[in-house]
């Protein structure tokens, strides 16, 4: 047994396991290299996922029936869930009707993009680089500002944001700059990082488990090391299922926070 472990240690020392890293999210360009339209694997996955999403929704709408089948019912359930349990639940029906298309787009797009990381052949979440979550976060806060300015006017909107009611005026010297920083940086940044970090970390952990499985079961020709491969394979399957849950949960959290932020820009109803 000692000799076997020693042989395994030698094998480990002589071989190397590919460790996933952040470089996996910066793959080389595969089309139009050296041009402003260069496409790498993540951008290609985004384009493909967007086309699939539009085709699914377009074909479902074109073939919609008065008595829906199972497929149409499933699509309508997702759309109605977004409208009823996200938008109307937070904003109310009267105020929320304006934002149903936007929040539905945010939720469905992020759901599909997040799930790309669990689809064999894609193997990378289309939202796993900082740019896409940032674009969606900026869209959210543009709508936040637009709604606030439309409902209150620019001056009143900024006054409510920078000078909250019920605070002694000397405190505003410290509070107002913090409020401005939160309005312009902290909220969009937190919305961006929450989605980005979850997609990156999940991919890295799953890739690490599967890389370790290949290493222990295939690359290392030593039966002593095989139990480690079984353990890492089981961990990888658990992470795969867990990442499906996380992908859906992060799309839901992003959509409901977007709705909540926009709703905060409206005047309080007495």
Automatic annotation (TrEMBL):
Keywords: ATP synthesis, Cell membrane, CF(0), Hydrogen ion transport, Ion transport, Membrane, Transmembrane, Transmembrane helix, Transport
TM regions (residue ranges): 43-62, 99-117, 124-147, 167-186, 195-218, 238-262
Stored Pfam families: ATP-synt_A
Statement: the UniProt record of this protein carries the keyword Signal: no
Membrane topology classification: Multi-pass membrane protein
Keyword Transmembrane: yes
Source species, domain of life: Bacteria
Subcellular localization: Cell membrane; Membrane
GO molecular function: proton-transporting ATP synthase activity, rotational mechanism
GO CC terms, sorted: plasma membrane; proton-transporting ATP synthase complex
HAMAP family per record: ATP_synth_a_bact
Family the UniProt entry places it in: Belongs to the ATPase A chain family.
Protein function: Key component of the proton channel; it plays a direct role in the translocation of protons across the membrane.
Name of the protein in its database record: ATP synthase subunit a
Source organism of the structure: Bifidobacterium castoris
Lineage, opening ranks: Bacteria, Bacillati, Actinomycetota, Actinomycetes, Bifidobacteriales
